Description:
The structure is a single chain. Helix 1 (2-18) runs antiparallel to helix 8. The protein is 32% helix and 17% strand. The termini are close together. The chain is built from eight helices and twelve strands. The relative contact order is 0.16. By secondary structure, the chain is an alpha/beta fold. The chain has a seven-stranded mixed beta sheet, with helices on both faces. Strands 6-5-9 form a three-stranded antiparallel beta sheet.
Amino acid sequence: MRFFMIVAGVLCAATLALLAPTADAANKVDIFIYTDTVQWIGQAQAKEQAEILADHLDGADGIGELLLHGPAKDVEAWTKKHTVEKGHHLIVMFGDVPPEIYDAGKDAKKETVAEEYLDAGNSFSNSADYFFWGQGGRNEEGGIKNMMDIPDMVQWDDDTPMEVTKEGKELTPTLDDYATDRPFHVDKLKNDWELEIAFASDSGTQKADRCDPCIVRNTKTDARLIQVYQTNNGGEPMGDVIAEIILNYYLEAVGALDVDPQDKLPALWGDLKRRR
């Protein structure tokens, strides 16, 4: 009799979970796709890749507000609004960080909007040039050094061969071996930054000195930098690969996907049988 009472209790709890849609609801990731200014890619091509990316993301589980071709005049307000602790929101860039949120020279003595956003636990993605370099060399090497608080971080080395890793083959099927011009220097990571995952690297594994595409994560703040094809006029399928990284890895990694209460039933039933 006690066994059947337990069964009834488990089924009742599962039913209540199904009727409570917010109980397991995750925080959606809002995305600002910035194309107003670019670097090693024509603006028309950047917009084309941005639209490919948006087509993949639109309506996907875990994606909240999606702002395509978000204009520079709106980026500061959007970034401030999304500077929430471990919000995991994402700004996608094509070679240029908007000066409205980050100008290392002008704002050297104060915390910039972009720094506050990243330090809170949000993310940037960049393609087509050095991360945070800035159009016309606005920030130069100081951009990424300041954003990551790593004084010797650089992203040099033209034509660095990248081999797709095992994880890259599984999660980013569009990605092929190629050569990047501005790889992430994994061997220089410090101050709570670590390589979270390499989709392609100089070794073809997660034990690497250089990577691109890849994600580096701050273990203290949960902030992430995602770089995808930092190449000079390469013509790579940036939109497809950025989308694969977001949909096949990032959303789950940051807990943005809703949990279906039905997924819990097999575990509950198995636990129940063991206790019988």
